[in-house]
Specification:
single chain, mainly alpha, 0% strand, 63 residues
């Protein structure tokens, strides 16, 4: 996983979490839902990158 991907994924998780909490605090279900979706997207992207990294490590180990 490249540094840019790590930053992007972390940003999605942090900003999404903030939107979720702000939406909850301000009784704004649309903002809360947007935050939950953005947070989940960040986690999903990170999981995908982790799988790619593990596959690359496995491939490199077989050489």
């Amino acid at each position: 996983m490249g540094l840019g991907d790590k930053i992007s994924n972390a940003t999605d998780k942090v900003v999404g979490g903030a939107k979720d909490k702000i939406g909850d605090a301000t009784d704004n279900p649309d903002l809360q839902a947007e935050g939950k979706a953005q947070n989940a997207e960040g986690h999903a992207k990170q999981a995908g990158e982790n799988v790619k990294d593990a596959a690359k490590d496995l491939k490199d180990g077989l050489k």
